[in-house]
From TrEMBL:
It comes from Atrichornis clamosus. Residues 2-148 form the MAM domain. One of its GO terms (cellular component) is membrane. SMART domains: MAM (SM00137). PANTHER family: APICAL ENDOSOMAL GLYCOPROTEIN PRECURSOR, MAM DOMAIN-CONTAINING PROTEIN. This is EGFL6 protein. InterPro entries: ConA-like_dom_sf (IPR013320), MAM_dom (IPR000998), MAM_domain-containing (IPR051560).
């Protein structure tokens, strides 16, 4: 497995230069490292912020599971989407409201067909709310299918 978390991960993260705002590091409650977040008040409604994970050395014709922690805290905070590769049309994962302030786990299966997926994009879309945040943390890539809960 590959640890792509932000505090000590070995992965290559890039801010998208063509979006409306950046993701920023935020301190974890317990004080052990940080996660990446977009506060609810950044930008204007429907503005986007994209954080791209560059994937190198993934073997073709094999499957991987991307596991990550996410949080959508606050009323009408917006949407969090995940895109694979350079396909910007349909997200492979989307969440648009948090039931509470808790962190949850997202899982995405990445099948390496003839064309390999060379990046994963976490996209935050600004909502109507003024409080809260969208956060992502503990991004891990493991080979094989995603485990059942």
């Amino acid at each position: 497995s590959v640890d792509c978390s932000f505090s000590r991960g070995v992965c290559d993260w890039k801010q998208d230069a063509d979006d409306d705002f950046d993701w920023n590091p935020a301190d974890r409650d317990r004080g052990d490292g940080y996660y990446m977040a977009v506060p609810a008040f950044v930008g204007h409604k429907k503005d986007m912020g994209r954080l791209k994970l560059l994937l190198t050395d993934l073997k073709p014709k094999s499957s991987y599971c991307l596991i990550f922690s996410y949080r959508l805290a606050g009323e009408k905070v917006g949407k969090l989407r995940v895109f694979l590769g350079n396909k910007k049309t349909a997200p492979v994962w989307e969440e648009n409201k948090g039931k509470d302030e808790r962190w949850r786990t997202g899982k995405i299966e990445i099948f390496q067909g003839a064309g390999t997926t060379n990046n994963v994009t976490f996209e935050s879309e600004r909502g109507k709310g003024k409080t809260g945040e969208i956060g992502v943390d503990n991004v891990i890539l493991i080979s094989g299918l995603c485990p059942e809960d």
